[in-house]
Amino acid sequence: MRYLPHTQADIDEMLAAVGLNNLDELFEQIPENSRRIRPLNLPEAMTEWELTAHMQELAAAGGGDWQVFAHAGSQPHHIPAIVPYLASRSEFLTSYTPYQPEISQGTLQAIFEFQTLISRLVGLDVTNASMYDGSTAMAEATLMAMRITKRRRVAVSALVHPHWRQVLSTYLAPLADVELITLPAGPDGRTDFSGLCGEPAVLVMQSPNFLGVIEDLEAASQKIKSLGGLLAAGFSEPFALGLIKSPGELGADIVFGEAQSLGLAQAFGGPTLGLLSCKTEFVRQIPGRLVGRSKDVDGKDGFVLTLATREQHIRRSRAVSNICSNAGHCALTCSIFMAAIGGSGFRQTAQVNLDLAAYLRSGLEKLGFRRIGSAPVFNEFAMHAPNNFEAVHERLKSQKILAGLSLNMWKNDIPGFNPEGVWLFGVTETSGKARIDALLREIEKGA
């Protein structure tokens, strides 16, 4: 949309219509100590070319051409040029919303395709039209399981991303009589759910987990279902599903995830895209919106919002979520990305990720790093580093190489796991063998 600023005459006319003297009077109901009364410290206006040069300088200072071997929930993947080109077409960047099907058929069809692609990827029947991000999708999956089972006990793996678990704790904190249990990490790098007992509503797990390890979701499903609960399984790296069985195939009842890898740039942390899928029998409890395909009066395919269980569509007391928006354009971008690379491209990319991770892991072992756990990994893995690695890491940062992420900051947040001296490494197809070889050579030089 074009930006059409108001002239002073426009502003004066509107103020007169509502009986006010100035714009400040619009905010008098807000306490003065909650208002900003001094002007913003903004630079003078720039020409377009001056602003472009300024932004380029900021971009170079903020990162430039770094070589990044640390992910922890946000992965750098190649995005084909066709993806941003199609996603930025004006037909998709319209101000109209899917509440107006007579105008928004293109948007509705794109959301329908997104639902279909994600359902096939995760192996479940129904996918909603996206959530904010992976962490809120996990929290909504947990609340959904509690409504279905009518239980108040939640078991979450300690190997779910620590930030995601913080979001879950925040969601559950205001609720009465909710018991949140954290299951510890086992020696193999997987969740130890052997001690799970009682009547849990849900077991929440991530695979690959925070340490990059692929969890045994089949065994987890059998365990939680023997206790009458549901399995909510998630991921932050969807490309892993190009090589391993989907969570639905392994017994998950609800699947949540982060789709940033699927065509969305990292962009300093956002916006990203949350995924939430479930079995058909739970469709009335899934939050967000669902788009369905039907026929119009002429017998042609038509798309419309079929189920919407959010508070802005129904009575607030019946709403299953207060998330009143979705990452619609991010979902569109994800759909274009998946259609562009196709099933074979998805699997090939996953295989490249797996192979490069194995290559880096093997090279680090030759330099004195030790593996954490014995379970299989995908494109991310944790290793115990030699004593001098922290100094090496600092030296490499001066060369714009981020050689892993220290897990010491989470030393009290992962029960059953001691992160002291442990570093998390990650690679994708953007890393390449040449860059990995260069990294290994620099590490070998020492501090």
Give the overall pLDDT as a whole number. 90
Give the SSE string.
HHEHHEHEHEEHEEEEEHEEHEEEH
Low-confidence segments, given as residue ranges, are none
Strand portion, in percent?
5-15%
Provide a count of the helices: 10
Reported for the largest beta sheet, the result is: 7 strands, mixed
C-alpha geometry: globular
CATH evolutionary superfamily of the largest domain:
Type I PLP-dependent aspartate aminotransferase-like (Major domain)
Percentage of residues assigned to helices: 25-40%
> What is the terminal-to-terminal distance?
53 Å
Helix/strand structural class: alpha/beta
What does this molecule look like?
The chain is α/β, with parallel strands linked by helices and 447 residues long. It folds into two domains: 67-79 and 342-445, Alpha-Beta Complex (Aspartate Aminotransferase, domain 1); 82-338, Type I PLP-dependent aspartate aminotransferase-like (Major domain) (Aspartate Aminotransferase, domain 2), CATH 3.40.640.10. It contains ten helices and 15 strands. The chain has helices at 8-18, 48-62, 82-87, 105-122, 134-149, 162-172, 217-226, 328-366, 389-397, 432-445; strands at residues 67-68, 126-127, 153-157, 179-183, 202-206, 230-235, 254-258, 274-278, 289-295, 301-308, 370-371, 380-384, 401-402, 405-406, 422-426. The strands form four sheets. The chain has a seven-stranded mixed beta sheet, sandwiched between helices.
